[in-house]
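Q: Hi! First time asking for a complex rather than a single chain. Here are the components, and I think there are two in total. Is that enough to go on?
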Amino acid sequence: MQVIEGAGRTYWAATDGSSAYYMGQIVTVIKASAANCNGTAVPLAVPAGAFDNTNMQIPIGIVGGFNVRYPSYDSTTGLQKQTGVVTQANQLAVEQCCNEGMYVKGDVQLLVQITEILPHTVIRTPIFNTTYGVAPTVLTATTAMTDGAVTAITTNACDFGTPVAQMATIYCRTGVNAGIYRVTKDTSATQPGVTTAFPYNGGIGDTFVRVPFKQGNSTVYIAGPGLFFDCSKSPVAAGTTLFNVICYRVNLQFPNLEYAEFRFGFDHFCYARA
Amino acid sequence: MYVVEGKGRTFWAPTDGSSTYYMGQLVTCIAASKANCNGAVVPLAVAAGAFDLTNYQVPLGVVSAINVRTPVYDPTTTLQYITGSQVTQALQLATEKTGAEGMYIKGDPQVLVEITEITPQSVIRSPIYNATYGVAPTVLTASTAMTDGAVTAITTGAADFSAGVLNMTTIYCRTGVNAGMYRVGKATSNTGPSVTTAFPYNGAIGDTFVWVPFKQGFSTVYIAGPGLFLDESQLPVVAGTARFGVFIYKLNLAVAGQEYAEFRFEGDHFCAARA
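A: Yes, that's all I need. Here is the structure of the assembled complex.
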């Protein structure tokens, strides 16, 4: 992920000495279960409770740097990665450099540079299907439209099991409606239907991508941890085990390059919320 | 205190006619006990209830000027101040006023203060004192040596707060082989600091430390004065009882008497109708 608009401060913070940290990962100051952590920032865990009300994680920023001289890469994600350590020997075994701010030069604990997220901060995130790097499934129509898909068409199954009316987006990737987005009204993984019709009646073989969120108020599952929107999770109106976000833009044009631009709902910045 | 980044508006506002206002004081628009106040702003009272849920004070800003022609200084804090007990005609007219701008007409003799507004993203620099304005945090001297970077606790003099809480305090090494380094404390005692992420070197007897009841990141703090400093004599509280919730960007405990924190208030404090 990356902050594309409205970044707060950029500062260096201590890690918890045990988690794996990735470049581009969202971090929080509240560990899952609302416990405090050793250090400052921990990776954003998956949400728990409506709008994460069980964990109450406050998203504080995105990792933008490590204080290590020699970066190490994670082969699965292709991202730079560091794992926290706590003992003297493990701290001294890694050559550190480059940190600024509160922590003195030469401090050998693992530090991360944070690009701060504030309530107005806009973030660009990749969209994957369950696993980092796996693109959303392309859906192919096996029936033709008769009224722009107000009457549902049939496709192979989308990645999320249970659509919710007005909480998912379908994008036509090839066919007469190519490039056009619509919000869906159906509750079937294989029968997409819309309220605002596609302008033309697509044919059999047209392809689509379908994701469980939309421009505007959405509920999303952030996995990785803190690395991507998981399009395999069904939308939930009440937000149970999902984060609340405002999506400015969803881009489903290219396979494996699908992304969303969003900001967090303000609740996520309040620790004492109901 | 003062706003170091992300201030909102600067505006003039009337006082409540009874409180004492200081330059650099945090003020709120909701008085303690959730009452409304006469005027616009009152000094920020100490928090009551978890995350101040009893008082619901919304931090409004920091006082940056007072509309008096002849400033008066408080010898204890060395801050410019005014006692707001100017509700009667006679008291208002007895002090010569000047300098106000904005909504209030030139020549209005009520006490007005200039507010540098705090919004949720405003970063504030606050001094850190021990119970009383101007009193520096106690310097702790190690009476035992480290064996594993203080994963096993060392012994020092007593910290100013009565008990530590796991992962909610910061210990700073001021002199010794680890000088300059901060670590989050895990100890629940106030005389035996220990850490999870070790200090890299084994410090010796005689090394000195400063230990405060908050840390970089999410913290609960006691703001005293009223509204003038972070009081590090108050123990940390996980659930925030009688504390404000803040996000601390930076602690600086390097110089005695000049310890400070840079923080912003956590979002709840800007919501008057929160649960």
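A: The longest strand of chain B covers residues 244-252. Let me know if you'd like any chain examined more closely.
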